[in-house]
Amino acid sequence: MKKISILILALVFISCKSEAQQDKENAEEYKIQKTESKWKAELTNQEFRILRKAETERPFSSPLNDIKQPGVFVCAACGNELYETEHKFDSGTGWPSFDRAVENSLAFSSDRKLGYQRSELLCGDCGGHLGHIFDDGPKETTGKRHCINGAALEFIPKEKS
Ligand SMILES: [Zn+2]
């Protein structure tokens, strides 16, 4: 019995360690790397608090909630193309919501800010915090809900041809 508990403890220790290492490796993978003071100088206060400090904007506060015209939503920090209007839906939560992202545009992490684990969505190019992903999205498409801070995005309308 004792041996088993030691084994379990060892396994827990190993898995915690590799998770921490993984996070660090991910952080070094971002192709856009800037110091916090550089980001602070480039972003608005609100953008900085959300993208770099993982804060959440007030629901129903983003003008991007109402956007329905075709176009692309890019990272407000680095311009990486993240979402398209065709994948946006009204989730009723007050945050811009999408059922999928542009392929290979995101990075994932996890946080326990509210005491339970949530999957955090980050910009794949600069590591900026965007929001979280949940499994209660539209069932007829992906079933996923990307719940995104509007302040982390900029909308670029598609040019009319
Ligand atoms: Zn970015």
Automatic annotation (TrEMBL):
The gene is msrB_2. Its EC number is 1.8.4.12. It catalyses: L-methionyl-[protein] + [thioredoxin]-disulfide + H2O = L-methionyl-(R)-S-oxide-[protein] + [thioredoxin]-dithiol. Residues 36-158 form the MsrB domain. Keywords: Oxidoreductase, Signal. The keyword Amino-acid biosynthesis does not apply. It comes from the Bacteria. This is peptide-methionine (R)-S-oxide reductase. NCBIfam families: peptide-methionine (R)-S-oxide reductase MsrB. Coiled coil: none annotated. It comes from Psychroflexus lacisalsi. It holds the Pfam family SelR. Residues 1-20 form the signal peptide.
